[in-house]
Amino acid sequence: MRDHTVGGPNFGVLGPVVAWNESGEPIDLKGPRHRAVLARLVVARGRVVPVDLIVDDLWVDPPAGATSAIRTFVSALRRALEPGRPPRTKPKAIVTAGPGYALHAAPDAVDAWKFERLVREAADSAPAQSLELLRVALELWRGPAYAEYAEEPWARSERSRLEELRLTAVERLASTQLDLGFAADAIPDLDAHVTEHPWREDGWRLLALSLYRCDRQGDALAVLRRARKLLAEELGIDPGPRLADLEADILRREGYLDPGAAEQIFAQVSAEYDRTVAAGSKSRLESTVGLLRSLAVAGGSGLETARTQRLKIISAAEQLDDVELTARIIGNYDVPGIWTRSDDPRQAAQIVEAAQRTIDRLPDGNELARARLLATIALESRGLSGDRGLEYARAAVQIGRTLDDPGLLAFALNGLFMQTFWTTGLASERDGIGRELVDLSVRHGLATFEILGHLIRMQALSALGQFDAAELHAETVDRLAGRHERPLAAVFTTWFRAVQTAASGAETTHCEMLYEAAAASFSGSGMPGLEDGILPLAILALRVWRGVPAAFDPDTNWGSYEPWARPHLLLAHGKVNEAAAAVNALPNPPKDLLAEALWCLIAAAAVAVGDRQVMERARAALLPAEGEIAGAGSGMLTAGPVSDYLTRCSEPS
To answer: Burial level of 568, CB count in 10 A (0-12/13-18/19+)?
Structure first.
C-alpha cells in the first residue's frame, strides 16, 4: 500500500529501496550506490549525515574521488526526485546542511515512518480501530527492510529494530483479532509467524489460544507441545510461564479461555455449517446476508465490515446470473437507517444501480422481492434529488400493506421516512411514520424497527417543539437498545439531550460543552456520513441563533457543510464583501434532516450582508416549516425557531 504525499516523492524501504512520485509512478533511482545514499539518509530520519560518514558507510576502502562521487549521486537523486525543479532553486527533498545532506520528507512519505506511526496509534486505540490500523501498517511491507543492504553495518540496527516492530505488530494484530472474536482469522498468519520465528513464545501462545477458541482443543495442545519440543531441542530451555500455564489451562478447560457460552455455540454451529453446506454454494452466499445484518446493528467495526462486504456479495450474486437470488441478497439486507446522509455515497449509488438492474429482470409475480428492492432503492438514495426514491418508497409500502407482511412493511416505511424530505416542514408526516413503525413492531416483535420508530418520533417531536414527549421516546430507545444490544442508538439519544438543553435556552458555553461531549459517542460508531462536520455545524447553528460570533479554529473540519459555514466565518472576521460573495454563491441544501437548519444559516447570512434575493429564496424554502424548530428534527442540533428567520427575512432592509 503506497501513501503518496501530495507535492513530493514517497519512499519505500520496507523491502527493496524505491521511490514513487506524487502520481504513484516509480522513480528511477539509478544504480545501487545511488539507492544506498538515499537509504542512508532515510535511516537518519531527517538528521544531517556528513559526507565523510556516507563515504565510510558505502566503501570499506574508499577510492580516490569518493567525496565527489557522493555529490554526483546526490545530484542525480535530486534530478530524479524533483524533475520539475527550476534551475538554481534549492532542492526540497535532499537538502545540503553543513557538512552533509538530510532527507526532508513528510511524516508519512516514508513507508517505515508511516508504519511506526500506525503501530503507535494502534496501541492507544479501541480494538476495532486498532485492528484496522495494524492491518494497514503490515500491508506496507514488501519484503525485508532495506533488503539490498542486509549486510551493511549502517542498516543493520535499523533493520533489526523495524523487524522486531513488525513481529510485535503481527502478534498485536492476532491478539486484537482474538479480543474481537475473530480467532479463525488469526490462525493462518500466526501459523506462518511461528514457522518463520519459532523462538517467539507469544506467537505460539496466540496460535494455541486461537485454535482453542475455534473448538480445536487437540490442535491447540499439539501446537504447545511442538513449541515445547523446539525450545528444548534447539535452545535447551523450557517454555516460559505463560506458555506452560496455557497448556495446563486448556487441559482443565478453564472458563476464561472462552469468550463465552454464546461464542462456543456460534463456533460449533459455524463448524457444522462449514461441514454441511458446500463451499461456493448459493445457500452459503445468501446466508451471509444475515450475518451482515447482525454485524451492521452491532455498530463500530461491525457496521464498517458489513458496509465493506455488502457490495462484494451483491457482485458475487450477479455473477451467478440468478436474478431471484440476487433480489433476495439485495432486499434482505433490511438494516434500519435513521440518518439521511449515506456513510458511503459511492457504494450506495452502486447498490441502487444493482437493485434497479435486478428489478428490471425480475419475473412478474414476485411482488415480495420487488417491494424489498424498491425499499432498498428508497433507503440507499437518501438525500438525492429526483422523485424516484419517493415513488419507490410509496410503492413498497403499498405492496407491504397488500401482502400483509410486517417485516416488509417496516422496511418500506423506513424507506419512506428517508424520502420524506422533498420539502421542509414535514415533521408531522415523519412522526406518523414513526408511530406506525412502533405499533407494527410491537405487534410483531420487530425490535430493531421498534427502536427506529421511537428514534423517528424523538426527532419529529423535537422539530415540533414537543421536547418532553420526545424525551419519553429517547428513554424508550435507551431501554430497548440495552435489552437488544443495539449500541448505535445511544449516539442519537446522547445528541438529542444536548439539543434539548440548547432548545431550553441554557447558556451557550454549557451547550457547546454538551455537544462536544456528545461527539465522543462517535468513537467506533462506524458512521462517517453522520460524524463528518456535525460537531462544528451544531456549534455554529447555536451561535448564529444566539447572535454569538462564529469564531472557529482555522483547521476546523466542516466536512460537506463548509459552503454554509463560510459566510458566517467571514463575517466573524469582518470580511463583509467576501461574505456577500459567498452568500450569493450558496447552493440549496440537500433535502435531508438538516435542510431547515442550513436554510436558516443561509437566511441569517443573507440578512447580515443585505442580499434580498437570497433572503427571498430562503424565506420561500422555510415557509412550510414556519411552526418548527430549525434543525431539531435531526436530533443533532438546533438553530432556533424557524419563525425567527422568516421574520428577519421579511423585515425591510
So the answer is: buried
Residue whose C-alpha cell reads 442508538 in the numeric block: 489
Instruction: Count other Cβ atoms within 10 Å, centred on residue 439.
Output: 12
Count the alpha carbons within 13 Å of 219 in the hemisphere toward its beta carbon: 14
**Given CA atoms 588, 590, 596, 601 in this order, what sign does their dihedral have?**
negative
Mean of pLDDT values over 461-484: 91
The neighbouring-strand residues paired with 12 are 18
Report in angstroms the alpha-carbon separations of 583 from 537, 542, 606, 608.
Answer: 17, 19, 6, 10
Kindly report the backbone phi and psi dihedral angles of residue 10, in degrees, each rounded to the nearest multiple of 5, phi listed first: -120, 150
User: Is residue 537 within 8 Å of residue 561, measured between CB atoms?
Assistant: yes
Amino acid at residue number 128: A
Check if the beta carbon of residue 446 is closer than 8 Å to that of residue 408.
no
Give whole-number Cα distances, 297 to 32, 205, 304, 567, in Å.
53, 33, 10, 38
Cα(56)–Cα(641) distance, integer angstroms: 75
| More confident: 590 or 258 | 590
**229: exposed, middle or buried (Cβ count in 10 Å: 0-12, 13-18, 19+):** exposed
Joined grid coordinates for residue 32: 545501487
Contact 602, 576 (CB under 8 A): no
Indicate whether this model's pTM tops 0.85. Answer: no
Residues in CB range of 87: below 8 A, 6 or more apart: none
Give 159 or 261, the one with higher predicted confidence: 159
Find the range with the poorest average confidence among 83-92, 555-564, 621-630. 83-92
Confidence of residue 1 (pLDDT cuts 50, 70, 90): very low
Q: How far apart are CA 243 and CA 320, in angstroms?
A: 47
Radius of gyration (C-alpha) of the chain in whole angstroms? 30
Mean of the per-residue pLDDT values of the chain:
90
- DSSP H or E stretch at residue 102: strand 100-103
26 DSSP assignment: B
